[in-house]
Design goal:
Radius of gyration: 32 Å
Strand order of the largest sheet: 3-2-5-6
Strand content: 5-15%
Helix content: 40-55%
Structural class: alpha+beta
Shape: flat
Number of domains: 4
Distance between the termini: 68 Å
C-alpha cells in the first residue's frame, strides 16, 4: 500500500534539510504568512530547556484533523489544561544570551575605484563614455570578458556613439593604466604582462616578460626544460624569473572588490567543545526567535466561544472561527516542527560525535572511522533519508576548525591487517606525503602507490589518482618547482 506523508511530516522534512542561517529566514517567512504566529517578547515565561534532553511529543497536535461541519468546541480546543503555555512556545534562546554583532567596513567598490581614477585622466566625452562602458563590463576578477566588436554595437545602440574596434583598443590601453596593475586584461597572459611592464626593467624582469610573451604555454604546463633549451639561459636565471612571475596577482580585481561582494561566512549548526577530555555538544541557536501563539487571536477565538456557543452565530462568525482555528493549527504544527527539528539534529549529531569520538578529541584525521549514513540511521532509529537531510549543508564547529557535516561520512577500505579504515584517512596520508615531497622532484602517482603500500595500504594507482584529483592536487609535473 502506498503511504503518503502528512503536511506536518513534509514540513519537518523541509526544515531538517535547511541550515541554521536559512532557518532564520524561513521562520520570518512563516511569521509573515501566519498572523497567529509571533515572536515572544517575554523570555522569562519561556521554558528554556536544553535541546535534546527529552524527545518532543508531537502526537497530540500533529494528528488533529479539521472539522468540516464546523462542530468545534472552542473551550476544549483552547483548554489550557490540555495545552500548557510552554507547549505553544519554542524555547530557542535564553534571556541572558550575549548577542554579538559582526561589524563590516563599508567602502568604495572595485568599479567605483576605477571610475574615480578615470576622472583624473584627460579624456574627451566620447572616450570617457567608452572607458565607462569598459569598466562596466569588467568582472569581479578585473578581466574584460566582453568582445570589443560587441562593444562597438553596444555603444551604438545604447549611447548612440559611433566608434570602431581600434578606438576602443586605444581607450582600453588607458583603462589598463589604472590601479590595480593588470586590470582590464582580456586573458591571464595579458594580465601578467601588464603587471610586469610596470616593474623596474631589471634583467630578471625582462626575462620574465619574455617567458610570458613567448613561452606562456610552456610556462603554465611547467615545461621548464623546454624554456631553458629555447632561451639559452642558466637554470638560476629561470628560477629567479619564475619567482618574479609567481608574485603577480592573477586576479587583480580581487584586491579591491571585497566591499562590492556579499560577505560569505559559515554559521555552524553544531558546536563541539573539549572540556577536560570530555566532549560537549550544543546546538547553535543564536538568532533563533522564540515563537508562540498570538494572544490576540487566542482571545478572539475564546470570545467567539463565550458569546455564540458551540453552534450559534451567523455564517461569517463561523468562517472567522474556522479561519482562526486553521491558523492556530498551522502555527502549532510549525512550532512543534521546529522543536522536532532541533531534537532530531541534536540526537543525530550526538551519535556522529560518539561514533567519531577519538577524532573529535584532537582532530587527527587518521582517527576517523569509516562511516556511512546507514551506520548512524541504525543507531538513532531513523530513516537514512532523514540522516541525509540532517547532514546536508550543515556545519559543525570544533576546537580545530569548522567542517561540513557530510565530510565525515566516508567509505572504507581494508589495510594489510584486514582492518577497515576510512577513505578520508587515506586521503590525509596521501596529502601529507605530497606536502612533504621534494618540490624539485615531486612524487608521481606510481611512487605514491608504493609509499602507501609500504605504510600498509594496498591501493591501486588509479585509486591514488582519483583521491589526488578529489583533493584538487595537480599531477607531479605541474607541482614541480625549479
Amino acid at each position: 500500500m502506498l503511504q503518503k506523508l502528512s503536511p506536518q511530516q513534509i514540513l519537518l522534512m523541509k526544515l531538517l534539510q535547511i541550515p541554521s542561517l536559512a532557518l532564520e529566514q524561513r521562520i520570518k517567512q512563516e511569521i509573515e504568512e501566519n498572523p497567529v504566529l509571533e515572536i515572544s517578547d517575554d523570555y522569562d515565561e519561556a521554558e528554556n530547556t536544553e535541546t535534546g534532553d527529552e524527545p518532543i511529543d508531537t502526537e497530540q497536535d500533529l494528528n488533529k484533523e479539521a472539522d468540516d461541519d464546523y462542530d468545534v468546541d472552542i473551550h476544549d480546543y483552547l483548554d489550557d489544561d490540555d495545552i500548557p503555555a510552554y507547549r505553544l512556545e519554542a524555547g530557542n534562546q535564553s534571556y541572558d544570551d550575549e548577542h554579538k554583532e559582526i561589524p563590516f567596513v563599508s567602502g568604495a567598490t572595485f568599479h567605483e575605484n576605477l571610475i574615480s581614477q578615470l576622472g583624473m585622466r584627460k579624456l574627451d566625452s566620447t572616450d570617457q563614455a567608452i572607458a565607462m562602458t569598459i569598466i562596466g563590463n569588467l568582472d569581479d576578477a578585473g578581466y574584460l570578458q566582453r568582445d570589443l566588436s560587441a562593444m562597438v554595437d553596444d555603444l551604438a545602440f545604447t549611447q548612440n556613439i559611433s566608434t570602431t574596434k581600434e578606438e576602443i583598443e586605444k581607450v582600453l590601453a588607458e583603462v589598463q593604466q589604472l590601479d590595480p596593475p593588470g586590470v582590464a586584461a582580456r586573458n591571464l597572459q595579458e594580465c601578467l604582462l601588464l603587471q610586469l611592464k610596470r616593474e623596474m626593467r631589471t634583467p630578471t624582469v625582462q626575462f620574465a616578460i619574455q617567458i610570458i610573451d613567448r613561452f606562456f604555454d610552456e610556462f603554465i604546463k611547467k615545461h621548464y626544460d623546454k624554456i631553458l633549451k629555447r632561451s639559452h639561459v642558466k637554470e638560476s636565471e629561470l628560477r629567479d624569473a619564475i619567482h618574479v612571475i609567481l608574485q603577480l596577482n592573477p586576479k587583480p580585481g580581487n584586491s579591491m572588490s571585497d566591499s562590492s561582494r556579499i560577505n560569505h561566512y559559515v554559521v555552524p549548526d553544531f558546536l563541539i567543545m573539549n572540556k577536560d577530555g570530555e566532549l560537549e555538544l550544543t546546538l547553535n541557536q543564536r538568532n533563533m526567535p522564540e515563537l508562540r501563539l498570538s494572544r490576540t487571536y487566542v482571545d478572539m477565538l475564546e470570545s467567539y466561544g463565550e458569546n455564540h456557543g458551540k453552534k450559534n452565530g451567523n455564517i461569517q462568525q463561523r468562517d472567522a472561527v474556522m479561519f482562526i482555528k486553521q491558523k492556530i493549527d498551522s502555527a502549532r504544527w510549525f512550532i512543534d516542527a521546529i522543536k522536532q527539528r532541533q531534537h532530531t539534529l541534536y540526537v543525530t549529531m550526538k551519535t556522529i560525535m560518539e561514533y567519531q569520538y577519538d577524532y573529535f578529541l584532537d582532530g587527527d584525521e587518521t582517527m576517523l572511522r569509516p562511516m556511512i549514513l546507514k551506520d548512524i540511521a541504525e543507531k538513532v532509529n531513523l530513516d537514512i533519508s532523514t540522516i541525509s537531510r540532517v547532514a546536508n549543508s550543515k556545519y559543525v564547529q570544533t576546537p580545530f576548525g569548522t567542517f561540513l557535516l557530510k565530510s565525515f561520512f566516508s567509505e572504507s577500505i581494508q589495510n594489510e591487517q584486514g582492518e577497515e579504515v576510512s577513505t578520508r584517512e587515506i586521503k590525509k596520508i596521501l596529502s601529507d606525503c605530497i606536502e612533504a615531497e621534494e618540490k624539485t622532484k615531486p612524487l608521481t602517482d606510481e611512487e605514491l602507490t608504493v609509499i602507501l603500500k609500504q605504510k600498509g595500504y594496498p591501493i591501486a594507482r588509479r585509486t591514488i589518482a582519483k583521491y589526488r584529483e578529489q583533493l584538487l592536487i595537480p599531477v607531479a609535473r605541474l607541482r614541480k618547482i625549479v
